[in-house]
Amino acid sequence: MSFVFDKNDMLFISDQQRAAIITACVAAAMADGNINEAEVARMEAEVVKVPWGMPRGLIDEIAKQAMENLSQIKDAKGVMDYITRTAATLPPGPIREKTLYLIASVMMADKQVNNEEKIFLDAFAQAFAIPNDRIQAIAKDLLSGGG
């Protein structure tokens, strides 16, 4: 199974769920408290690959709103509340796995994942209830440059 979103994935999720995935990408870029140009470029590159089924302007507006909302989170509890809400919004299984893959792809833009980003990814993986063997498969695919 590919960890990249395809058109079929988007047929079965709501606009609210699509927005949650876009917001998770923005959160991934912000996870270490420093959004650099490489992360923004990678987020753009990853987001445009996804067949969202919505106009680009709307995707950009969701991302802009996400950045504003996420920048209001000031502590670890707020981050965990956000992650928990995201997990509750997305259906279990492949959609959550593909979301984790997508956010990890954004984080790897600068070819390194720092401690804050690792904690963020681990929190998402736990909230998404992704089994360890699937996490390992996602990591292997990312490190091999797959998709």
Could you explain how this protein is built, in words?
The chain is an all-alpha fold and 147 residues long. It has one domain: TerB-like. The protein is 69% helix and 0% strand. Helix 6 runs antiparallel to helix 7 (115-127) and helix 6 packs across helix 8. It is globular, with a radius of gyration of 14 Å.
Largest sheet: none
Question: Which regions contain 5 or more consecutive residues with pLDDT less than 50?
Answer: none
Report the order of strands and helices.
HHHHHHHH
Strand content: under 5%
User: Superfamily at the CATH H level?
Assistant: TerB-like
Helix content: 55-70%
Radius of gyration: 14 Å
So what's the CATH class? Mainly Alpha
The whole-number mean of residue pLDDT values reads: 89
User: Separation of termini?
Assistant: 9 Å
Number of strands: 0
- Please tell me the CATH architecture by its name: Orthogonal Bundle
Q: Could you write a compact summary of the structure shown?
A:
By secondary structure, the chain is mainly alpha-helical. The protein has a single domain (7-143), classed as TerB-like.
Topology, element by element:
Layout: H1 7-11, H2 15-30, H3 37-49, H4 56-70, H5 76-89, H6 94-107, H7 115-127, H8 132-143
Helix pairs in contact: 2-3, 2-4, 2-6, 3-6, 6-7, 6-8
Provide the descriptors you would attach to this structure in a database record.
single chain, 147 residues, mainly alpha, TerB-like
